[in-house]
Design a protein that fits this description.
The complex is a heterodimer of chains A (about 425) and B (about 325).
Chain A lengths: L1 E4 L2 E4 L4 E3 L1 E6 L2 E7 L10 E4 L4 E4 L1 E6 L12 H10 L2 E6 L10 H14 L3 E6 L13 H7 L3 E3 L8 H14 L3 E3 L4 H4 L4 E2 L2 H6 L3 E2 L1 H18 L3 E3 L5 H12 L4 E5 L1 H5 L21 H13 L4 E2 L28 H11 L4 H8 L1 H6 L15 E11 L18 E11 L2 E5 L2 E2 L5
Parallel strand pairs in A: 1-6, 2-7, 8-9, 9-10, 10-11, 11-12, 12-15, 13-14, 15-16, 16-17
Antiparallel strand pairs in A: 1-4, 2-3, 4-5, 7-18, 18-19, 19-20, 20-21
Helix pairs in contact in A: 1-2, 2-3, 4-7, 7-8, 8-10
Chain B lengths: L12 H15 L16 E6 L5 H12 L3 E6 L11 H9 L5 E6 L4 H8 L4 E7 L5 H17 L8 E5 L6 H12 L3 E5 L12 H4 L3 E4 L2 H5 L4 E4 L15 H8 L3 H7 L4 E3 L12 H4 L6 H20 L5 H4 L3
Parallel strand pairs in B: 1-2, 1-3, 3-4, 5-6, 5-8, 6-7, 8-9
Helix pairs in contact in B: 1-5, 1-12, 2-12, 5-6, 5-12
Classes of the chains: A alpha/beta (about 425), B alpha/beta (about 325).
Chain lengths: ~425, ~325
């Protein structure tokens, strides 16, 4: 048994915040009581959380682990290591591997590899269409049986509205969400950054915000029409956020995520063609940044998702238009979000919710709660720890992050997955796999 | 650290005028019997042209040779890039042979900037990057205007400039915009909204002296200078124009429209021109056209640029030895 004692407990699922201790037994939370309640217990391991925040383990709805197929960029193991160091206890990995995660064999491979790391729970997202081609539907039932928690063709929008409709309808039976990368490729048209005065100045092809908005609008209507569950990936526009807000008010079954980079950075960060600021959707202007942030604050956007997208140096050390899209995210989400808490832009409870309870609810995962009977997935945050995100700190196999060199405040000090301590005093505890 | 010429944006007015002064002195060299000065003897200039170009490449080559530099040309089809080598590797290999200047033309915006940040000893000259900048084109346009208007007793400040056509994809339009902005000139971009995007209205980036106009007559009205841009044939298939015929019906710069709305204007074109599409032959071959002067002055401008960057340290003393 483990007792986590002396910390400030923050549980968005119960809207509980205060001086509570946790008792863990095996892989589950056995009890939550006022501070000191478990001090009489014998032969327990005590984790001293004084001065720290005890929160549900973080859940990331959107990561790319690159295995199988692109193991030089990231592996399930290196990704899971980066995840727990960032405070994540569950990560949902996108299916754009090679081969695509479009059948039970691949899903099981990913689950096995994930389980073997003994670190964060690795939860595969199956593809909606076979090989992400947008043509034939993947065997969604088989993928669910294998352990997939959602479906997505991330990186590729579902261009065929008929396929989207039928997938949503099929998923009514499975009760799983369709997670959508929203981009009208005829509007983005080979663009590589936000379409704006800046893209016009730099002579780079732009991706207008409306390329995202029109697809969000379409999928809201399809969700309304079918009654299916739709999840909007990495919302980057104020208008898209507003569409989701209205859809929720209409009672449509919709959830959404935003990335740390879209609420921290604007397109200005590109400077003179910095490819570490190239991602899809692109960094937008200040009005969009504020619009997305407001959505995260008021709950329109349920979850902060890292869209962790490792790429080797060679695919970024090229001309801007040729560079790969995407940046690392797992190890930087927490401190970047805490900056907003310190500024008063977002409440502490809401921030923790966006990292844990919010995403867990969006995908109906058994996570994100610090109550008796829940899985013992816990993140203990040292909110004031100052550190620099240096290359040496990066646990991923890739280094593509615009935040390298940035001063950070706040870190995951201790992380517990299924009752096992996997990060202890900021250090990864090898699980012998 | 070598200095580079990557764009007009960010350049000071003094620097711009200095280039023009230097270039004006170099015009005379091309008129001599022996068209050569020893200014860059022993210097090596590599022209790396990864996008088709006749005019700009030969202009840089001739400029280098007239300064007595050793110049070599590499074009896309004969470079290792076709064998899959990255741009950075190509440039680093060239740098290992100790050239003084690397002149680069590349289809991607920012490619020269990318190299300039990574090369250690080589000065980089942007000879056109994507839809971003083409600084020597803007300089030669200005030199042409300077010489023309000085004959009329006018300065190149205070001009009304209309840039007509496919501004969206034009590095010439952008470099000219920055250049004319430095000189305090009013610039109007003229063309259909598909090719003159509203993003240019962002005055925090482009300033308050830029105007957009969809109507050709209104756009050129009273202009001193008309810069015609090349209309690329593939724009039709990309839905930027319904057809080239329809485009030219609305936007072809003809003598009829010029004599009515900008009777005193001169006409520039960066070439290669599509006669009858963006500009009529009557204009191109007529008395308003400064097109062949542009080409002549292009050599002088590139001599000035190469001299400034290759002649050693960037001290003003050396710059003034022209």
């Amino acid at each position: 048994m483990i007792v986590i004692s002396g910390g400030t407990l923050i549980d968005p699922s119960a809207q509980r915040e205060g001086e509570y201790d946790l008792l863990l037994e095996g892989a589950t939370i056995k009890d939550v009581q006022k501070r000191g309640s478990f001090s009489e217990l014998k032969s327990v391991r005590i984790i001293d959380a004084r001065g720290k925040w005890v929160t549900p383990g973080f859940v990331d709805l959107h990561v790319h682990l690159r295995e199988p197929g692109f193991e030089w960029k990231e592996t399930i193991k290196s990704g899971a290591e980066a995840a727990v160091l960032g405070g994540y206890t569950s990560i949902c990995c996108m299916p754009n591997t090679r081969p695509t995660n479009d059948c039970a064999e691949i899903a099981k491979f990913i689950l096995d590899r994930g389980r073997n790391t003994g670190l964060a729970r690795v939860l595969p997202i199956g593809s909606i269409s076979k090989a992400l081609q947008g043509k034939e539907m993947s065997p969604l039932s088989e993928l669910k049986s294998a352990g997939c928690v959602a479906f997505s063709d991330d990186g590729e929008p579902i261009w065929d509205a008929g396929l989207m409709r039928r997938s949503l309808e099929w998923c009514l039976m499975l009760d799983l969400p369709i997670s959508c990368h929203e981009e009208d490729k005829h509007l983005s048209c080979g663009g590589c950054m936000n379409e704006s005065g800046l893209s016009t100045r730099l002579g780079l092809k732009g991706i207008p915000g409306v390329a995202e908005d029109v697809m969000i609008a379409r999928d809201i209507e399809l969700a309304r029409f079918t009654g299916g569950r739709v999840h909007i990936c990495h919302v980057s526009t104020a208008r898209g956020t507003e569409l989701i807000r209205r859809a929720k008010a209409d009672g449509i079954r919709i959830s959404a995520e935003a990335t740390p980079h879209h609420i921290v950075l604007t397109e200005e960060a590109i400077g003179e063609y910095d490819t570490n600021c190239k991602m899809s959707p692109p960094l937008r202007g200040e009005a969009d940044r504020l619009g997305v942030l407001a959505g995260l604050k008021d709950g329109t956007i349920d979850a902060l998702a890292s869209d962790h997208a490792p790429h080797e140096r060679d695919s970024k050390e090229v001309e801007f238009a040729k560079a790969s899209f995407g940046i690392l995210g797992l190890q930087t989400s927490l401190p970047l979000l805490l900056d907003f808490v310190r500024q008063g832009a977002i409440s502490r409870m809401r921030a923790i919710e966006a990292l844990s309870t919010g995403p867990a609810k969006a995908f109906k995962l058994n996570a994100g709660r610090l109550v008796a009977g829940a899985p013992a997935d816990i993140t203990i945050i040292d909110p004031d720890y100052s550190w620099t995100f240096r290359k040496e700190v990066v646990r991923s196999l890739s280094l593509n992050s615009p935040f390298i060199g940035r001063q950070m405040r706040g870190i995951a000090d201790t992380v517990v997955v299924e009752g096992r301590v996997v990060v202890d005093g900021q250090r990864l505890i090898s699980q012998g796999a | 650290m070598p200095r580079h010429l990557l764009g007009i944006e960010g350049m000071s007015r003094e620097e711009l005028l200095q280039y023009l002064d230097n270039a004006e002195h170099f015009i005379e060299v091309s008129g001599r019997d022996i068209k050569k000065v020893p200014a860059l003897r022993g210097k090596t200039i590599v022209n790396l042209f990864l996008e088709p170009s006749t005019r700009t490449r030969s202009s840089f080559e001739i400029a280098g040779k007239r300064l007595s530099a050793d110049t070599i040309n590499i074009s896309g089809s004969e470079s290792s890039v076709v064998k899959g080598e990255t741009l950075l590797d190509t440039a680093k290999n060239l740098e290992a042979m100790a050239p003084d200047v690397l002149v680069i033309r590349h289809r991607e915006s920012g490619a020269p900037h990318f190299l300039a940040r990574r090369l250690k000893t080589t000065a980089v000259v942007n000879a056109g990057d994507g839809a971003h900048e083409h600084p020597t084109q803007a300089l030669l346009d200005l030199l042409t205007l300077k010489i023309h208007f000085s004959k009329l007793g006018r300065d190149i400040s205070g001009l009304k400039v209309a840039i007509v056509g496919d501004v969206r994809h034009s590095r010439v339009a952008r470099s000219n915009l920055w250049a004319h902005r430095l000189l305090g000139n009013k610039v109007t971009f003229v063309g259909p909204p598909t090719l003159v995007p509203g993003e240019f209205r962002d005055s925090s980036i482009f300033g308050n002296n830029l105007h957009l106009e969809a109507d050709l007559a209104r756009g050129i009205e009273g202009a001193d200078v008309i810069i015609c841009l090349r209309m690329q044939l593939e724009r039709q298939s990309e839905h930027f124009v319904p057809s080239l015929e329809e485009y030219s019906h609305e936007y072809c710069v003809s003598e009829r429209v010029l004599s009515r709305y900008a009777p005193n204007s001169v006409v520039l074109h960066p070439g290669p021109a599509n006669r009858g599409t963006e500009v009529s032959s009557e204009v191109l071959d007529g008395p308003r056209s400064l097109v062949s002067e542009q080409v002549t002055h292009g050599v002088a401008v590139r001599m000035a640029v190469l001299f400034t960057l290759a002649a050693g340290s960037p001290s003003t003393n050396q710059e003034q030895q022209v």
